[in-house]
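We now fix the convention by which a protein and its fold are recorded. Think of the row as the fold of the chain written in a discrete alphabet. Here is one such record, which you should read through line by line.
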Amino acid sequence: MFARRNVWELGHDWADPILWYARGVAALKARPLRDPTSWRFYAAIHGIFPELWIKLGHLEANEPGPGQDLVKRLWRQCQHGTWYFLPWHRGYLLAFEAVVRAAIVKLQGPADWTLPYWNYFKTGQNQLPLAFGSPNWPDGQGNNPLFVPQRYGPNSDGKIFVPMDQVNLEAMNDPDFTGVSSGGSPGFGGVDTGFSHGGQVHGGLETQPHDWVHGLVGGGTEADPGLMSDPDTAALDPIFWLHHANIDRLWEVWRRHPALHVDPTEARWLQGPASIGERPFLMPMPDGSTWSYTPEEMAVLTPLGYTYDDLSAATPPVPLAARIERLRAASIPETTTMPSRNDSELLGASRTSVPVYGSEVRASIQIDKRVRDQTVHSLARATLQSAPDRVFLNLENVRGLSDAAAFHVYIGLPAGSATESYPDQLAGSIALFGVRKASMPSEQHGGAGLTFVLEITSIIDQLHLDRQINVDSLDVRLVPVKPISKDAQITIGRVSLFRQAS
């Protein structure tokens, strides 16, 4: 049984697991693109945009590549915006780890080498691991294969870290793996789809911290993106694999509450998209074979032969009873009629699309009085038998050219107020990981863009308790991490609010 270990707790910056990782990466980078076990071939399994690879210096214009059969079967597989996001990436990590381990063994390295993970949530460990931040090997020689120049950080100044006030683990409290694409919760693991190389609605863990860390580490602009900022270049950065090992670890942490959290049981999830006539999940292995796997085979770590050195709870589950007690503590007048309850229902929406540029953007959601009253009723009547509504803010059909763009979203701030004075009204943070591809008419969803879903239940609860929920409109303020250029052409098709029965 292999144990993946925290990169910051290996002993020192160039501890043996990292030094061997660098040597293995160097060996893979030396292989030609047409080799299925090469560094760039494995990156192209996640995604490839040849023009961008050429621009960033990772591909020669006329460089020979693999045959079309290999390209069709193995490239552009990554699953995003889908309930396959977590199991597909787990298999991707396992196969990559096996390829690197084989290269390390060939260099007379340890046969039990495992990929470390980067737990940026742990105190003092949110900085980029130091071995990745220098162009030099530990002996001072250049060409460190773990270093890439296209890694710009949250402020695009080359300082790479994950700001702790901008990431969260709220997805770990989502009781459901599978979400909905109709405005309610996208679930911990994503929405029910077929093979989805770039779905529209990202699941909870995928949105935060996955997408956000990609955007923060990569940084850059639409003209000069960091590798981690774009799904078509992300796997070219060696830190990609440590980030995804942490996301994989968080899935296992979530699963360790079996009374609360279970994976899907539907056959089309268990058996994967091949069971419905779509592309199977395939990975090239070091012995020249091709491995096919299903989500069911990825669900349990022990048969896969590995675990993590730390599977302690990332954030304690928030029991429904605690929320109900808080709501019932206040004496709130009840409505006189019992509303109908639906899985999800539109509570309100903006009337126009919203262009996003500069340092701040405002939008207004027009509230439907009937649905608002239903939500108020559910909050006022909350019991364990009649659970209160959850409320979700949707940023629908987000389009643009810059995957590096990111912004914070605030709800109901007073006019002219400073955002730092209202931290409890931060709905969440959005990184536009994948927006460029999702905006292209030639892609899977015809340029419909991405939809981001933020749960704002706690904010709505507080508005209810403060007797400020009976409004005709709700203001939304978007605050970019750094000013967004008009050239990024970012627009939100609609800002909407949905209630969902618990």
Remarks:
- Residues 85-106 form the longest helix (22 residues).
- The chain is about 25% helix and 15% strand.
- Confidence is low (pLDDT under 50) at residues 331-342.
- Residues 2-308 form a domain with the di-copper center containing domain from catechol oxidase fold (CATH 1.10.1280.10).
